[in-house]
Amino acid sequence: MALIVQKYGGSSVADAERIKRVAERIVTARKAGHEVVVVVSAMGDTTDELLDLASQVSPVPPGRELDMLLTSGERISMALLAIAIHNLGYEARSYTGSQAGVITTSVHGKARIIDVTPGRLRNALDEGAIAIVAGFQGVAQDTKDITTLGRGGSDTTAVALAAALHADVCEIYTDVDGVFTADPRIVPNARHIKNVTYEEMLELAACGAKVLMLRCVEYARRFSLPIHVRSSYTNKEGTIVTGAMEDLPLEQALITGVAHDRSEAKITIVGVPDEPGIAAQIFGTVANAEVNIDMIVQNVSTEGTGATDISFTLPKDDGPNAMAALNKIREDIKFKTLLYDDHIGKVSLIGAGMRSHPGVAAKFFAALGAAGLNIEMISTSEIRVSVICRDTDLDAAVRAVHDAFDLGGDEEAVVYAGTGR
Amino acid sequence: MALIVQKYGGSSVADAERIKRVAERIVTARKAGHEVVVVVSAMGDTTDELLDLASQVSPVPPGRELDMLLTSGERISMALLAIAIHNLGYEARSYTGSQAGVITTSVHGKARIIDVTPGRLRNALDEGAIAIVAGFQGVAQDTKDITTLGRGGSDTTAVALAAALHADVCEIYTDVDGVFTADPRIVPNARHIKNVTYEEMLELAACGAKVLMLRCVEYARRFSLPIHVRSSYTNKEGTIVTGAMEDLPLEQALITGVAHDRSEAKITIVGVPDEPGIAAQIFGTVANAEVNIDMIVQNVSTEGTGATDISFTLPKDDGPNAMAALNKIREDIKFKTLLYDDHIGKVSLIGAGMRSHPGVAAKFFAALGAAGLNIEMISTSEIRVSVICRDTDLDAAVRAVHDAFDLGGDEEAVVYAGTGR
Question: PROSITE patterns, alphabetically (chains A, B) (predicted)?
Fold first, then answer.
């Protein structure tokens, strides 16, 4: 008998029929003798509909109230799921994030989990019940207000509960069969990956692979909790994210896969005085605006001008904030202009094996060059190479790199529609 | 400066436009220097939509989960209302029943308020904020599960919070201008009533006047809390429900009004052995099935048979429960048959003045007789006369009685569509 935490995204519970199917899957696990905790997102488009309602009453809804509003979405899906399970003859009890003991910071819309006190869930399991928990939400430690965890919040809820309950595995149900060597919508013969390390998964997530969010993988790594990413539409084994690289088979592939990201924009600060402390001032300003930056490139100072250009990439959503913050320090820093470009794409090659294999980056750049694709920025880590290109070149770049490293399989990957939150 | 509790029903917050209008009304009270606590129901048809979703996943949803599901309705409306108030430049904070300190029994779907601990609301008011509270819901004292209060729950929430916060008045906003001498949809010249006592209002509510629910009036009477029932569509003064009769002007009208009720059914138990203890056994059984009965009539024993017939009225919703419970004791009691009739109507005449004026009942029966309407059952209290008739005769009966006691005014009453919960 194991303790399993399952997480279902919004598309898996989009309507009554799908909720009933998910209920059957949950009951199957319970029948097999396992203790089951289920984390669920809001049904289908509920969150967007609620956001639309909010925008109808105010252009700038306050965070506390927006969180109160949005958390009703999971309340609906979790109650319906519990009702559907009852209808199959099994006891299920739904819990809000607050009831489940998900304690967070008080930053509305972007709260972080501080602690998990799953006493009520443990009791429910001890009494033979299946516990259903609202994903994406918690209660602020200091204000006792309801908070939401922001993007990837439901996955993080699942992993955090699994860690706190010492679960054997956290199953993340999604609309694909797990992690692939590239997005099957772009590369039809992308290969399914059975095992991947936390480290590789972190790089994949950071580089745009949407199947798991970065913070949830970080959380799982911290607690050495295995994640099983799998499809809620089939019974196929998905991808197991686990352990340190040292635990993995020696025949570990050189390259894990190719990730891509269309969600970033690039800001270029033109004519920055080339003086000590300026970069710190710029990125301090950006950080204070709560903007996460990704790549940074600084050109060498143009001979004689004493000025340089600094470019960095960031999530498109944060673009307006960052531009506003930078414009405020223009006088102070004395830069010339700000350029905003949201027509970029990022393609990344990830593989733990590349640590010990020089030449990977060169082969990667050569593949792009041979395909006639221009590279605008480059960034690397020990186990990753990323480049920025035009967004219109992105699909071609992914295919070129995937082919160059011979990552394809023999079968066509199956693609389902929609994703959860 | 007063402390005002305002309650808005589902039709008052049915869409974004109405929510904005309600927000303006709330802000007007706040601007006038008052402390304002607002209790709100779910938007328009939300509750019915949620019930429909539940029925799609199970024919018999468990109470705990149904309560969890339904309480999401108020969560949405209260957050949107708080957002709309923020947009007018005022601070508003929304609270679930649980957060607002509404402590209840654990009977799901029909919980009763045990205690109110409005510490967080008091703090919000002290900090200058408007507090928005979800009506209709609370948290069970023993299980800590979320409960709903059943019909009239939002009104009761408002009165309970007003009592706990020592509010000056509880304003119940609805779709009519208050209490009328009869339903204006049936009697076009029904007169608006400015003041009514708790006692009269209790009788009116018990007899089908939908403007206020019985339990909310009971609660207000216990704490001597004035209720102001008024329309959310106009600024007209509504009806004030207040004080003991002794406090009211001496010229208090003989008759307050005519109420009617279409929600009851009649059960007749035919051939009950005329023995001591049988009635107690029958109504004990009905009470154990959690059915509230209204009128009871027992005919005299038919000569020689040693058997009698007992009829009683009850809410139609409870009909199946009561019939099932009675059928179970048939062998035991040895009655002959059970008859169920849900085509009845009840018309009632209410007035504190009738206590000291004999002849009211006779005039009432005469009015019905003159209109050719048959009386099936009669029940009276000190300040009320009620009869059961065919449901098809009900409108005519209301008009006949209203005319006979000359209750009409000169103007046509205004009627709006829809009611809240």
Answer: ACT (PS51671), ASPARTOKINASE (PS00324)
